[in-house]
Design goal:
The protein is of the alpha/beta class and about 160 residues long. Helices cover about 35% and strands about 25% of the residues.
Length: about 160
């Protein structure tokens, strides 16, 4: 029992060590979007929205309902989704064709090499506010209306 508890505690400590701290610079990366266009993280980005599962992606989609094409880009924001757990056949036949119809860009972390570094929980969207490539603040959203309101506030 104590070995199990110790192992669990070590796992929790290790995962919290991966969490970004304010002032910390995000490591650069390049990923493809749903149209196979590359995007490289740069110092111009102000908000990185991250989801690690379908529920998180649905949350962002609900928050963006009725918003015009380019809404995120106008706010210097972009969406990053971890699709590594999605079966490749499902992705190719159903998910990616549907994503191509979205009026916003979705960066696809196909191998879970980027998203795990951002400590995103199940069913949530993590908002990483950036300045010159460094983290200013991190917020966690579980509600589409609250996320929509936060995005709307960015445009003011």
């Amino acid at each position: 029992m104590s070995k199990t508890l110790t192992a669990l505690l070590l796992c929790l400590l290790a995962s919290s060590a991966l969490a970004l701290e304010p002032g910390e610079r995000l490591a650069p990366w390049t990923l493809l979007d749903q149209h196979d266009q590359p995007y490289t993280l740069d110092n111009q980005l102000q908000v990185l929205l991250v989801a690690r599962d379908m529920d998180g992606a649905k949350l962002l989609d609900a928050a963006l309902q009725g918003k015009p094409k380019g809404y995120l880009e106008q706010r210097q924001a972009i969406f990053l989704a971890d699709i590594s757990r999605m079966p490749s056949l499902i992705g190719k036949l159903f998910a990616l064709p549907k994503m191509r119809d979205y009026n916003y860009r979705v960066l696809l972390d196909r191998d879970a090499r980027v998203v795990p570094g951002y400590a995103v929980g199940e069913g949530e969207v993590v908002w990483l506010e950036l300045r010159d490539g460094a983290l200013v603040q991190q917020r966690h959203f579980h509600d589409a209306a609250a996320l929509s309101d936060a995005l709307e506030a960015l445009g003011r």
